Every structure is written in structure tokens, then in C-alpha cells.
Amino acid sequence: MKIVVALRVNEAAARLSLDGPETLLDALRDQMGLEGTKKGCDQGACGACTVLLDGKRVLSCLTLAAQCDGHEVTTVEGLAPDGGVHPVQAAFIRHDAFQCGYCTPGQIMSAVALLDEGRAGSDEEIREFMSGNLCRCAAYPNIVAAIRDVAGEVASHGADSGV
Amino acid sequence: MAPTPGFEYVRPSSVEDAVATVSGDPTAAYLAGGTTQLDLVLKDRVISPQRLVDITRLPLRGVTRTSDGLQVAAMTTMEELAADPTVTRELPLVREALLSGASTQLRNMATIGGNLLQRTRCRYFRDPTVAACNKRDPGSGCAAVTGHARMHAILGASEHCIASHASDLCVALVALDAVAHLQSMGGLSHVPLTEFYRVPGDRPDRETVLEHGELVTAIGIPLLPPGTRSSYLKVRDRASYEFALTSAAAALVVEHDVIRFARLALGGVGTVPWRAYEAEGILVGAPVSEGAFRAAAEAAVNDPFTVSGTEFKVELAKRTVVRVLQTVARNAS
Question: How far apart, in Å, do the first and last CA atoms of chain B sit?
Fold first, then answer.
């Protein structure tokens, strides 16, 4: 028997028809065509599949889509209006905070949440609370620099910069 | 690639409904945050419940201050408990243990009840192509004792099983005499966490005293005496996002350089979260000194079972104990 689930994805209503075992990651990519969220390890170890669930960062590979019934999901596609870039995305470009780019959507989603959590107070704190996102290209110094940069913008312009 | 494991996803209407559903079906299991359960079911495919009963929507969330402690509802997440004002102010060992575990993403998903009930597991248990695993298949042997052991237990271990209990939180909780609140078909009961886990012996498949269908609904955490200082120290191969090689939770009351109260538990080295009662007995009444800390450490890591690859943990665990006691005593005096 199919389970019908109603959720919001990137501020739009969505309905999914599920067997039960489908992960949120597979539902996003295969059923909804949102391929910005990446499948890295698919086992909760790498962070490439990070999305926001009700504003909190989670791993979509270890979340059942059925568990998202009635909840709000934000993926990298939903961070900025069409054609625009979110301040964290702009900072990643400015700081060359990626090489192959595969982990980048997860890094960016995690960074957006980290700033919201108020955990970008120092490079040490950024490194600790970004540790769930692995980068095999080892772009870590530039990722930290990009986040530090946005944290500085938030500090100097207040909390209304959309971060 | 094998087909995706099939299971029925069920949403119970109440705690009683959830308990009845799982109690009445030997193939059913609870699903909380999913961070180890779904990993083992969907990814490793080493356990195969036919029904997963989603308890995350039940009214089992939040932290309540009671007259003598905290009552933490089982579906409270690790991040939520770490942010609790009482935990932040009065139980630094709990907060530090929580924040040293997993990553923020996982801590936003993983629940306190689920953390208690994460499987005691090692890489051989998680690999279904390995035949010898007494935990998966009682009587089949243990591949780890002659394999590549490093992340394994040395206390409460034997040739039957050396998988370690991976929780950081539970190390702090056993030190605090936390109590699990259980709901079964027969009603409510309470079990101290120090009696909740079973040292594996020759049945490593049985990890806790829970009966099938029994549900952890809350954890009671007693507060520490006024003036207690505490900390959690985790030693690991990476600076963050890694399981413990060794860890220790300690709480001390120190008056005029004499220890008046002591709690100590070890992680990363036990088949269960390891409370060090004998070490506590050595510490109480002793002067704050490296000699007393070292004597406590020797007692805490008494009679280890090591295999090739885990011998180093004996001395590392002792030094971890000494270090955490030094840190706490420095803050306490």
C-alpha cells in the first residue's frame, strides 16, 4: 500500500507517493528532480546530502521521505530566488571554496545552518561545527574563509542580510 | 546491487499503540531518529525488521526540570538536550559528551532514546559478507578478535565479542546514575542505566535488559551536588566527527584540595558504557594529586581483555582518566 505524504519543499507544496523505505535524498533527486542535493557515501558519513528540515540541517540519506510528512524541506535550489545566489554561495565563489564541487551543495547548506546557529565565532568553531561535511579535495581552508567572510558581513550589517 | 530492503512504515497514534504494535510483532522495530537504525537496515543491510514503527511523532519530546533533576523525553534530539539551560549550566559533562558525538546534522536527527539504544557495533558486525559475528549470528565466532581491531573494547570484552558501545552521552549518563523510563504492555518501569546494558559474555546479540516491544520513553538525569565540577574528555584519531578511541566523564567536589565526591565513567573501551566504581572509591577522601588520579586510573582499567591492535588502549585509557581528573580538579579548586 502506498503512503501519500504532503510536505513543503523550497516553499512549494509537494506530494509524494511512497512505498516506505525511500529516503528523502532519493525522493528529492529521483521523484522531484532536485539533483542539487548530492549522494556521496549514502550512509551518513560525508554530509554531501545535507538539507534543512524545518530550518535544521539534517542528512537526507538517513531520513525517510515518509518521516517528512507535514514538514518543510529546503535544498540548495531553494536558498536564493531563481537566477540569484545566496550570500553563502557568493562567498564560496569569491573564496574558491571548492574544487570538484561534489560536496559543495552540502557544505553550503551546512554553512547556512551553522551561521543561523551562531557557531561561526572563530575559525576553530567553524571547523568543529562543519566537521560533518567532508571534502575529498581538501578545500577546507577556503571553505572556512568563505564562512568567516559571511559571518563578518552578518556581524557588520545585522541579521537582515538573508543569512 | 540487491533490491532495496522492504519494510512497512507505520505511524502509531499513541505510545500505547506503538508499544502494542511492536510487542505483538517479533519482526517489528521502533524507528526514532534513524541515524543508526536506517544505516543498519537500508545501507549495511545487517538487520531486517519487516515493520518500522515511527515514534518521532509521539508526544515524547522536551526537557523538564524536576525537583531533583531533569526528565528528558526520549525523542528529544541530541542538539536540543545540549542546548538545555540546566545542562549548559550544571551538567557540562553531558553537554560536552553530546557535542563531541557525531556531527551537527546527525545530532539534529538522533534522539536521546535512540542514542541509548544504538547498536553496540563494530565494522565486522556491519559487514554482512563477514560470516563470523556472534552478535549477528550467535555461535558463529568473532572476526574482530583476529582481525583489524582498533575501535574495539577492552573492558567487558572476551573472545566472543569486542564491539564497543559507541555512545559518548551514555558515558556521562552512567556516571550520573541516570535512569531509563520504560513503557511495556505491563506498564511503566524504571531501570538505572548502570543496569540497563548487558556485558556480552557468550550472548553479544543481547545488548540490554529490554524485552522486545519495551519502549524507552524518557531518561531521568539526577543533578550533581552543589559545587561539583565535571567534564568529558574524548580521545580520537581525528579532531572531530570520529568515534572515541578512549574517553572519560568525571565529576568531582573538591574542598581544601581533598576530593569529597567523585564520579567516573569510561567510553571507547567498554562493551557497555563503563562506570568505574572502584576508582571513585579511591578518589573520595584522597588529596588532589597525580598519585591519586593514577591509582584511580589503574583501578578503572582493571583486568582488560586485549587483542592485537587494542593493547595501546590500556595505557591510553588510563592517561585519559588522569587527564580528565586533572582538568576537573583544576577547575574545582
Answer: 59
Strands A72-74 and A3-9 turn out to be: parallel
pTM of the entire structure? 0.96
Residue A162 domain flag: no
ipTM given for this complex: 0.95
CA-based nearest distance A89→chain B, Å: 19
Domain membership of residue A68 (yes or no) is yes
List the single residue in A59, A110, A133 with the smallest CB-CB distance to B109: A59
pLDDT tens digits for range A140-159: 999 999 999 999 987 776 55
Which residues of chain A neighbour B105 with C-beta distances below 8 Å? 47, 50, 57-59, 110, 132
Q: Of A78, A109, A141, which one is at a domain's C-terminal end? A: A78
Residues in chain A within 8 Å Cβ distance of B42: 21, 23
The CATH code of the domain that includes A141 is: 1.10.150.120
Identify the domain boundary among A35, A57, A78.
A78
Whether the Cβ atoms of residue B9 and residue A20 lie closer than 8 Å to each other: yes
Q: Do B241 and A132 touch (CB under 8 A)?
A: yes
User: Is domain B229-332 classified as CATH 3.30.70.270?
Assistant: no
Whole-angstrom distance, CA of residue B154 vs CA of residue A63 = 33
DSSP bridge pairs for B183: B188, B215
**Sign (positive/negative) of CA torsion A110, A112, A114, A120?**
positive
Quick one: A104 and A72 in the same domain? no
Give the A-side interface with B, CB within 8 Å.
3, 18-23, 42-44, 47, 50, 53, 56-59, 62-64, 66-67, 110, 113-114, 117, 119, 127-129, 131-133
Q: What is the mean pLDDT of residues B314-333?
A: 93
Give the residue from B204, B206, B190, B199 showing the smallest Cα distance to B124: B204
Helix axes A104-117, A87-94, angle to 10 degrees: 120
- Considering the domain architecture, whether residues A46 and A91 belong to the same structural domain is answered as no
Domain count of the fold of chain A: 2
pLDDT at A158: 57
Q: Which domain holds residue A48?
A: 3-78
DSSP state of B240: S
Using only C-alpha atoms, what is the Rg of chain B? 20
pLDDT at A163 over 70: no
Residues A124 and A59 reside in one and the same domain: no
Interface test with B, best of A5, A18, A46, A57 (most B CBs within 10 A): A57
**What gap in Å lies between CA B205 and CA B328, rounded to an integer?**
37
Same structural domain for residues A109 and A58?
no
User: What are the tens digits of pLDDT across the range A73-85?
Assistant: 999 999 998 889 9
Per-domain residue ranges of chain B = 229-332
Partners of A116 on chain B (C-beta within 8 Å) are none
Whole-number Å distance between alpha carbons of A127 and A104: 15
For A132, which of B8, B105, B239 is closest by C-beta distance?
B105
